[in-house]
Amino acid sequence: MSGGSPFAVLGPDLYVEDPDVVAAHAGDASEGGGVGGPAGLLRPRTTSDVAAALALAHEHRVPVVPRGAGSGLSGGAQAPAGSVVLSTARMDRVLELDPVERVAVVQPGVVTADLRAAARAAGLFYPPDPGSVAFSTIGGNVATNAGGMCCLKYGVTGDFVLGVEVVLADGTVARPGRRTAKGVAGYDLTRLLVGSEGTLGVITEITVRLLAAPAPARTVVATFASLEAAGAAVHALTASATPLSMLELMDRTTLRAVDELTGMGLRDPAAMLLLQADDPDAAATVAAAGRTCTAHGALDVAVAEDDAESEALLEARRQALPALERLGSWLLDDVCVPRSRVVELVRRIEQVAARERVTIGVFGHAGDGNMHPTLVHDGSPEGAFATRRAFDAITEATLELGGTITGEHGVGRLKRDWLHRELDPGTLAMSRAVKDALDPRGILNPGCVLGVE
């Protein structure tokens, strides 16, 4: 370890400069790797460790890139040259779980699935369920305001965050929020920090609300001869207010890739809808949803016979991106349109794929309009250029349809230029003012979200 770094005073347990260790923490899951290469890695165990590290970074004007599990897909944890990465992986304890107040207090490094399991053991339910639930961490989920497959009924991560402990850029520790069922004292700074992608502070503790465990879920799948027919069924299901907890879509490209990866025998429809209900009359709900799918041209509608079959279908959906990744170089989009425009978005994606001659696997949370068109190419410069054109065309079409450039993955570095297209000048000015107030020296995740270097 070099003695020239201001972080050397923290000791070798908290600060590492080994090139191999640092390189392993230099980026996230978005393809393309880092954007220059960090100089070191901070590995705090406590809030005090984080505060000490940020005080040094603020004093010496060293950029700091906070990082959870590195499962992000928007480049938010890609560390530029000369920065240091601050990993919250070792802050991984469930500090409290109160079944009476229905709250849990956790450190940011707790894996999402582990929190869900802890809640389940207490007879409670933590709904947020991103596709990376088995390895993503709560801190990263909060930083990007992650969604998941249950958003249709339950909402996103931020809907369950009551309060946080956060270390500001200069090392100051603040605790905005509450743990009571209600509370409106002062500005809602908790909501401001959720989704800020490490640009306003480093969150070191999260208080989340929990729900009573729902009824056992029932799952149904419906297959279609065209992607547009599946989209029409989605439109009908959302318009009818059928109380589904999940409404997912996978197209033929995605289904073929998943089947090749898992050998699940998904056959070869143009599209599949995966629907789930967990209300007290879930059987009747999925039966009604099945009838709606049939009325809109479903080739086949089948209800999962037991929990094991249901979980297998959910696993197929979770494997969508890993399966598509195996086809070649890839670029994942994350766009959200009004639910009434999903059919039109799907149509526009098909047109873009044909025009640019790019393979696009379409899957996502169709019930709330949040789709993940995944563009695959052969790795050649020509393929990469065509893919980027297609990516931009889909993102532009999303805005034209009244949508937003990201539904759950965050802006990161991948979409920071598009943020300036979506937000009006007044909103951008407010955003910059907040950033300048909380991080006056611009050391927290520079280049992320607003693009401020």
Show the helix and strand layout.
Blueprint: E1 15-16, H1 19-23, E2 40-42, H2 47-60, E3 64-67, E4 84-87, E5 94-98, E6 103-106, H3 112-121, E7 124-125, H4 138-144, H5 151-154, E8 161-167, E9 173-174, H6 189-193, E10 202-209, E11 211-212, E12 218-224, H7 227-239, E13 246-251, H8 252-262, E14 271-277, H9 282-295, E15 300-303, H10 307-318, H11 320-325, E16 329-332, E17 335-336, H12 342-356, E18 359-361, E19 363-365, E20 370-371, E21 374-377, H13 381-400, H14 416-422, H15 425-438
Parallel strand pairs: 2-4, 3-4
Antiparallel strand pairs: 1-2, 5-6, 6-10, 7-11, 8-9, 8-10, 12-14, 12-15, 13-14, 13-19, 16-21, 17-20, 18-21, 19-20
Helix pairs in contact: 7-9, 7-12, 12-13
Molecular structure report:
Strand 8 (161-167) and strand 9 form a beta hairpin. Helices cover 35% and strands 19% of the residues. The model has no long low-confidence stretch (mean pLDDT 94). It has a seven-stranded antiparallel sheet, sandwiched between helices. With 453 residues, the protein is α+β, with helices and mostly antiparallel strands.
**Residue-averaged pLDDT:** 94
Strand content: 15-25%
Q: Between the first and last Cα atoms, what is the distance in angstroms? A: 27 Å
Kindly state the percentage of residues in helix: 25-40%
Could you tell me the radius of gyration in angstroms? Answer: 22 Å
Q: Which descriptor suits the 3D outline?
A: globular
Number of strands: 21
Report the structural category.
Answer: alpha+beta
Largest sheet: 7 strands, antiparallel
Spatial arrangement of strands, main beta sheet: 15-12-14-13-19-20-17
Number of helices, where a helix is a run of at least 4 consecutive DSSP H or I residues: 15
pLDDT < 50 stretches:
none
